[in-house]
Write a structure and sequence with these properties.
Strand content: 15-25%
Strand order of the largest sheet: 1-2
Helix content: 25-40%
Oligomer: single chain
């Protein structure tokens, strides 16, 4: 799943879209937390951008107490991926429009 737009609505009102299906915003906590509750190390690296220019990342999860393994793999992968550069920043007018439209 790629980055999502900032949503200033109350948490209970927020939604995300995964594979074309609208889901509650907090569903993503389950996916991100699986390695944490198992005490497994995880390292996240940027791997590109989606069609809207938002960043995409990949989580690397490793065996228990193998933190350096996930970091070493992340370093190796970073050397294989093209540089991403800096994302563009939305102008304040766009942030206001997004907030007002509920995006």
């Amino acid at each position: 799943m790629g980055a999502i737009r900032h949503d200033l609505r109350p948490l209970a009102s927020r939604r995300i879209v995964v594979d074309g299906v609208t889901r509650p915003y907090w569903d993503q906590i389950w996916w991100a937390g699986l390695s944490g509750v198992a005490s497994l190390p995880a390292t996240v690296i940027p791997i590109g951008t989606d069609q809207n220019g938002l960043p995409l990342g990949m989580a690397i999860t490793g065996p228990y107490l193998e933190d350096r393994t996930t970091m070493r793999l992340a370093d190796e992968l970073a050397g294989l991926l093209p540089p991403l550069g800096r994302p563009g920043l939305p102008v304040p007018d766009q942030l206001d429009a997004d907030r007002d439209s509920g995006v």
